[in-house]
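Sequence in, structure out. Go.
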Amino acid sequence: MLQQFGHNFKDYEISIMESHQSSKLTEPGTAYHIANSLHVAHERVISIRDAKTQAYKIHIPVAYLEKHAYHQIVIKDKNDEIKIETKVLGHDSYSNGVKKILEACVNNKLANRRHTVLDLVAMGLL
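Output:
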């Protein structure tokens, strides 16, 4: 939805924040994808890896500091604000998601090309 309609927010104040376990060394792909959809420079994405900030500012339970994913998008205009927030604690949803992706690929005849998760969603397979 953001990819399709994100350009409609070009005149709004937009902030994107993400947090993952401190051991994450790769780029914040989901946050960058969101930024691209909203035409926000990657340099403006706020990445949090500090455990104290994660625990006290975004309320990640201590037990999940080393296995979480958090994303927040805030879109503001004068008196109005939209806030979208996702919080994944642990790895269960990832393993369940991978299982569903594999089942979709095995149980359906797909064209011989690279498919993204969004492609599978658009095809109604997920």
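Check: The longest strand covers residues 68-77. Residues 42 and 66 are 24 Å apart (CA to CA).
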